[in-house]
Structure formats: structure tokens, C-alpha cells
Amino acid sequence: MARTLDAVESRIFESRDFALDGGAVLPELRIAYETYGALNGAGTNGVLLTHGYTSHHHQAGRYRKGHAPPGLDELTTGTWDGLVGPGRAIDTDRLFVVSSNMLGSSYGSTGPAHTDPRTGKPYGPNFPRVTPADIVRAQKSLLDQLGIKHLVAVAGPSYGGYLAFQWGVQYPEFMRGIVPTVTSPKSNAGPSPTLKLIADLATDPNWNDGDCYANGGIFHTMVKMRVQTLRFYGIEAQLSPTTPDADQRDAAIHRLAETWARVFDANAMVVLRRALEGFDTTAQFGRIRAKVLYVLSRTDKLFPPSLAPSVMQLLDRARVDARYLELDSPYGHLATGVDADKWAPVLAAFMAELQR
Predict the structure, then answer these.
(1) Domain stops at, among 203, 238, 273
(2) What is the pLDDT of residue 131?
(3) Burial letters 42-78, b for 16+ CB under 10 A, else e
(4) What is the count of structural domains for the chain?
(5) Is 64 a member of any domain?
(6) Do 265 and 320 sit in the same domain of this protein?
(7) Claim to verify: residue 167 and residue 183 sit in the same structural domain
(8) Do 28 and 108 fall into the same domain?
(9) Where are the alpha helices (DSSP H) in 91-181?
(10) Phi, psi angles (nearest 5°) of residue 330
(11) How far is 308 from 129, CA to CA, in rounded Å?
């Protein structure tokens, strides 16, 4: 039986006067993160894990009591538990794994719900615009402080996959491989998805153009939106084996949504959605020096396998060493974590190749 990680701690990296692409400067930068394994003397055995749009940075193991970020606890399951740990595909006996929260997100990193030191009030809708490049640069600052000189790989699902591609073009010499999963190298999103999200949030009478904190927040609207998202991602298929009764399954989904809605900030959703407007790394594929393992799920409605041929063709034209894996999984957008066993051997072989 594979060993598990225990005594995991969520920590905070802090920096000051962090300049953003748009010209704004954050007086204080905080990035929540976790580490698994130990850094070697040369600082060259690091792996960076990135997380999904509305997810958290707890990717593996169990928390030491009292060391979980707000909204999580020692019972919270790591989203990539089946892939990260001693003897697993991302082997923490050999690798120093850093799982970083995103700038602008929740669970401890600087975001709209945090206090602007210049006003003493939450940033709220006034939080400055960020880009994927800003998010990656903040993560690079964290890695520098930890003493990491070179990464074996950057890996992550969904929004984290966007960031893996961004790492590949932004710091092409800093890693040997990237593993973007259930994702795409571009979003093609203009302002419309952001405007629709804001319109959905504004149906709550407490929204107040995003300045909703003094009004008690918009909990019930967030729960409703989360239930819809979980269903779209494939939560029904995940819960069906253990919760076959439809009413009990609905109740379980609502409990998951409520737990999330107590922590995740609505303005963070807006900030991270807006960051993807115009996001496209494909024109910079020629900069990629890392090997690529691109993974999609047969049943994913958000990033269907039909994306793969064009992505792989563009990588091939750019002379990138890339390979593609399609998971035959019923778990949709959740497949890389829930169905970890189906691709762990391929990931293990890829990681071993990168370490040779």
C-alpha cells in the first residue's frame, strides 16, 4: 500500500510592492502554498503544482492539526492525492513539490477580499487587474525564496493548466517539462464571460456592485452557482457509486457547494475570469523548451478532446517535444484527480524521463 503524506502545513509567502502588468502595484503580496518532500542541495528537484479556477492549493496529503488555510481542515482530501506522494507518480521521496495558490484567489493569497493597506477596507471590486503572467511571476518569486533553481516540471488541471502553458512560454529555461491537464493553451475569452458572471452575481440583492462584504456577502447565490458548476464538471458521476440515491446525492452536492461558498470570494471569481480575457500562449509556442504531456478527458464538457488535434499540431510545428493522453474516464472535468490510477503510470514514466 502506498504511503500517504501527513503533517502538511499551509504556509504564506510574503513580498512587498509587487508590480502588475497593468501598471498597478500591490503594496503587500501574500501567496499561500504547501510543500511535500525535500529540496536537494542543488535546488533542482522542484515540481510546481497549480490549481483550478475556483479550487484550492491542497493537492496532496492531510494537514497537521491547526495548519490548514481558512475553509479547509485536516480531513480535507488533496485533489491529486492519487498522483502526489511517496512512491507515487510525482514521487515526494525524490522530488520537492510546491503547490501554490493563485494571486487573486481565495484560501490565503492576496485577493479582493483582503484589506487594502492604503484604505483599511477590502479591495473588493477595486482589486487591480491581473494577468496569467502576473500569477506566474508571483509563483516564481515564491520558488526563488524557497531556493529552487530549476524545476523538473509544472503540472496542473484546468486554470492550473493554463498556467502550466504560461510557465512554458514565460520561463522557458526554468523547467524540463509541463503537464497541462483538462485545459487549453488559450481561452479566446473576451469581456463577455466576465460580464455574464458579474450579471449572475448581481442577481443577489447584497451584491452592491461587488462591495458586498458589509452586507453579509452573497452566500446563497454562490451556493447556487457552485451547484451548477459541480454538476457541469461531473460530480454526479463521482458521487454515484457511493451515493446511488438521487436525493442523497443532491444533498451531498449542496453540502459541498455550501462549504466552498463560505470561503471563496465572489470578486475573486471576477478577477480570475477577467485575467483570461485574450489569454493565448499558442503564438509563443516557439519559446517552449520543456517537454509536454497534454492530458484531456473523454467526457470533459469544458475542455473536450476535440481540442487536442489543433493543439498538438501547433506544438509539433513549433518543434516542441509533446505527447497527448486522452483519459477514458466518466468523471469529466474532474478526471485527472478522481481517475488518477488511469494515467498515473504515464505520468510516472514522463516524470522519470524528465529526471534522467
Answers:
(1) 273
(2) 98
(3) ebebbbbbbbbbbbbbbbbbbbeeeebbebbeeebeb
(4) 2
(5) yes
(6) no
(7) yes
(8) yes
(9) 132-146, 159-170
(10) -85, 0
(11) 30
DSSP states of 290-346 as a string? SEEEEEEETT-SSS-GGGHHHHHHHHHHTT--EEEEEE--SSGGGHHHHTGGGTHHH
- Is 333 among the residues known to form the active site? yes
- Reply yes or no on whether 297 is catalytic: no
State how beta strands 175-181 and 151-157 pair.
parallel
> Is residue 6, in this structure, part of any structural domain at all?
no
Would you call 150 a catalytic residue per the annotation?
no
The DSSP bridge pattern shows strands 291-297 and 175-181 to be parallel
Which member of 105, 300, 329, 339 is catalytic?
Answer: 300
Q: Quick one: pLDDT at residue 191?
A: 82
Domain housing 348: 11-189+279-355
Tell me which of 57, 58, 114, 333 is the catalytic residue. Answer: 333
pLDDT at residue number 287: 98
pLDDT digits (tens, 9 = 90+) for 49-63: 999 999 999 999 999
Q: Does 5 fall in a domain?
A: no
What CATH number does residue 327 fall under?
3.40.50.1820
Q: From 273, 293, 320, give the residue that closes a domain.
A: 273
Q: What is the pLDDT of residue 14?
A: 98
Cell 443577489 belongs to residue: 204
What are phi and psi for residue 119, nearest 5 degrees?
-120, -20
Which of 99, 106, 158, 329 is an active site residue? 158
The per-residue pLDDT for 67 is: 93
Tell whether 216 and 349 lie within a shared domain: no
Query: Mean pLDDT of successive 10-residue segments in the chain (356 residues)?
Result: 81 97 96 98 98 96 92 90 97 98 96 94 96 98 98 98 98 98 90 93 96 93 96 94 94 95 96 96 98 98 97 98 98 97 98 96
pLDDT tens string 157-213: 999 999 999 999 999 999 999 999 999 999 976 788 999 999 999 999 999 999 999
Cell numbers linked to 270: 471576477
Task: Judge if 301 and 350 occupy the same domain.
Answer: yes
